[in-house]
């Protein structure tokens, strides 16, 4: 069982393991929130000191039962949790489904192609301008008042 110091290392090694055997490799996530324990001596000071927020832990594990390889990563950083759950799990899911990896600039190829192409015939809509004021709707109160300028 290998523990990694950074999430990026775990992600790279997990990607390689999934590419080697995508049908048998499994990824598990465990997210737990543990309450902060109070000391008996600190109970008297509890009224004076603010209460600490609970500590959350994310554990990611990639396991291949055929080869017996287990890759683990543990973090308590909130920013890293969202990054790993979003980008990393999406990338690993693509590898498990045997889909090609997508580079960041190729994330939306349709949008880039649409910008390059110019429409050949665009119907132009002409609008007529009139000098008549818009109809009064009545009861328009409740808005902010204009500030007066300096005199």
UniProtKB/TrEMBL annotation:
GO terms for cellular component: signal recognition particle, endoplasmic reticulum targeting. Residues 120-131 have a biased composition (Low complexity). It comes from Akanthomyces muscarius (Entomopathogenic fungus). PANTHER family: SIGNAL RECOGNITION PARTICLE 9 KDA PROTEIN. Residues 97-151 are annotated as: Disordered. One of its GO terms (biological process) is SRP-dependent cotranslational protein targeting to membrane. It holds the Pfam family SRP9-21. Transmembrane segments: none annotated. Coiled coil: none annotated. Residues 103-117 have a biased composition (Acidic residues). This is SRP9 domain-containing protein. Residues 4-96 form the SRP9 domain.
């Amino acid at each position: 069982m290998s523990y990694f110091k950074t999430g990026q290392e775990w992600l790279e090694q997990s990607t390689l393991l999934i590419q080697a055997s995508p049908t048998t490799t499994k990824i598990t996530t465990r997210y737990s929130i543990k309450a902060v324990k109070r000391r008996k001596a600190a109970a008297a000071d509890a009224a004076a000191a603010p209460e600490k927020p609970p500590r959350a832990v994310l554990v990611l594990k990639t396991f291949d039962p055929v080869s017996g390889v287990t890759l683990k990563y543990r973090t308590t950083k909130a920013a890293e949790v969202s990054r790993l759950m979003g980008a990393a799990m999406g990338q690993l899911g693509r590898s498990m489904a045997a889909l090609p990896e997508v580079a960041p600039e190729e994330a939306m190829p349709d949008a880039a192609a649409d910008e390059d192409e110019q429409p050949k015939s665009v119907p132009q809509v002409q609008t007529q301008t009139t000098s008549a004021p818009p109809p009064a709707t009545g009861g328009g109160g409740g808005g902010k008042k204009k500030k007066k300028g300096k005199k």
